[in-house]
Amino acid sequence: MKRLIFACLMTFATALPSFSQEVTNTVLDNGMEVVVIEDHRAPVVVHMVWYKIGGADEPLGKSGIAHFLEHLMFKATDDMESGEFSEVVAENGGSDNAFTSYDATAYFQRVASDRLGLMMSMEAERMTDLLLTEDHVATERDVILEERAQRVENRPGALLNEQMSAALFMNHPYGIPLIGWQHEMEGLTREDALSFYRDFYAPNNAVLVVAGDVEPDDVIALAKEHYGPIDANERLSPRARPLEPVPRAPRRVTLTDERVGTPYVMRNYIAPARRSEDQSEAAALVFLSEILGGSSATSVLGQALEFDQKIAVSTWAGYSADMLDLSQFSLGVVPAQDVTLEAAEAALDAEIARFFETGIDPEQFERIKTRIRANDIYAQDSARGLGNRYGRALTTGLTVADVEAWPDVLQSVTPEDVMTVARKVLQPTHSVTGWLMAPDMAEETVQ
Amino acid sequence: MKRLIFACLMTFATALPSFSQEVTNTVLDNGMEVVVIEDHRAPVVVHMVWYKIGGADEPLGKSGIAHFLEHLMFKATDDMESGEFSEVVAENGGSDNAFTSYDATAYFQRVASDRLGLMMSMEAERMTDLLLTEDHVATERDVILEERAQRVENRPGALLNEQMSAALFMNHPYGIPLIGWQHEMEGLTREDALSFYRDFYAPNNAVLVVAGDVEPDDVIALAKEHYGPIDANERLSPRARPLEPVPRAPRRVTLTDERVGTPYVMRNYIAPARRSEDQSEAAALVFLSEILGGSSATSVLGQALEFDQKIAVSTWAGYSADMLDLSQFSLGVVPAQDVTLEAAEAALDAEIARFFETGIDPEQFERIKTRIRANDIYAQDSARGLGNRYGRALTTGLTVADVEAWPDVLQSVTPEDVMTVARKVLQPTHSVTGWLMAPDMAEETVQ
Question: What is the model's pTM?
Fold first, then answer.
């Protein structure tokens, strides 16, 4: 068992609320990782089980199965009725939920600290004894299909995202939608779900994260009691997804849909993610995102396109550092009335070119450094925020040590680092550009 | 055992050489299909074994393994030295080769008829007793990597094709290059090859095609003798590749490479392939391809862009009907000097629009019908051509009856059928457009 002190950086110009955390991590005999984050600010605990399995690990032709199984985990087990899990949590004054990402599937409950053992007993139960009836599977398949209808089919912007990712990723399953392709979702069966469950839901593929008003020894004792008896899955093989080939050519996607009220242009570049013991590129990309698109009033794109040239009503830049294999760096412009997507894209390209020439304003850089430090602190404001930080990291190839190092890595980024990573990432051949527009705009804006 | 008479259509205005074939097909007890095509024009026989396994059946992350294994099948077996197979064929006055497609892997020899049994004994030997040494695997991996270097890396047009297919197919493995992504080819191992071999090289996954100066009863007796004793693979599951989602948005890819001497624009649309008992759409697409791009002097694109407007030095249309799941319909324009790719693409689009308005010239249609009939006859000019026809069909979901029906299906296509399939297939949302150009053209032609 390793015990680590994780003290927040406190060198603020402005005073920010903060506290010190003790983080304990260990591994049970069956391979289950345990992370305990002490946070005694409130008498609550967040109990999370993170499985190292997500949308990018799905078998060929079974897109959506990771998310589907997440839904089905709230159905019956040997000892619980369908829906009983959440009912018990609620009866105990708690709340629970779950989510699926490309790299992880997580289940969590927020309850009073003295209910932790109960949560573990129920979570251990559904790690091993899930029962699925054909009825439950059929009902829940309708639920996920409706979810897709609402979140994707009814939203042209989501459809564009789907098409852009499919065009950007030539080989990696990040190009397949997390919720699933509709035609494959329609064919998902009980056996598909059970097979995925048997293959990947096991203690040696899971990380237990407990954050809150607890003592590490108590948590570990409870974990041994409830999760310790579960057998490891000896057939579990290391995660290995197909990687991307060298990208050779810029790609473009134009989605025309009569429901589009606000047209826009966006561009996604393949970008590195945080890597264990090698987080500096990702940290520089966090800065690049803030510099180019962080705040309308001060960002490079906001100042130029919204305020100076007045050709955009909004601009953005986006980057998520926490991915197992690869991430995307995203830029976008919503043009002002009567500005074509073509003109908006040309202005975006001109602004990027100008950025490479003029570099980074030192004052803006310092402001952003302060803001990133503040965001980092705010994210620790809840036990759940703390738990997420560790769970996400430990399911995307990082370690507790990487999580601890991250604030320092961020604070040590220099403007030169940012320009270096910008030159590496913002290459046209690594990108897909998307246009979202209504049919009546097609005549005006596409040659 | 089923015995079928396949007589060529003989209703020609111009006399074409032809002959009648007898086609016999049966299935051995171990599931191996046998097709015998009698062709007594010359005392030779073509012996082919077609496996129903190809590039689109490869495990995730193992692109190129189907083609790699094809190479390795010429290495040692229990009873043969590496290279001995081809040496024995040559010593017997024959020639041999093999090829891999997305849907099949085929091995064939052309020898004097009395050597058929010898060919079968050797082919049966390498169906079961392939031995692979680490040395052979390493050497041959260098060979396929060199093949990729020559055929793809050194050819910007091939790189563009690769990128276009990756952008067009969002889910189906037809979007992954048949020869493999370089980074995955580099990692292919002996165990990968043996695992693929054990999973898919089995009599119940193979079609034996023998075409030439043989009697069906003799061939079947030999097949029983040599292939009959091989056990079926009971673990073999039906082929099921991930299918494409509904395409929503036109895609574009621009490949800029300093080695490009001849820039061009091309567009690929996802198109249906021949389907068993439902070949009429594919037949109409064969006509569409001929009508739009078949011959410079008379095709729609050739006449308009090369001869009338003189803005293209060449144009083409392409379609391959023989794919298991899906095919592509392809159009291309090589612009004349000083004509930009943008102008060439605009002219291509204008010509397609005009085609939808004016429809098909009846005289052109009749000429094309005659040419297709002639092509069909010419393709039967060799035993190998005949064998290919059946082998390809039987490994892409078709039957002997479909092969026999195909000439009639082609001859019954009407101009209306062609316009209907053109409207269905030539939709921008179903397409990817590629530009191939040199860097110095980028400034002129891309906004």
Answer: 0.88
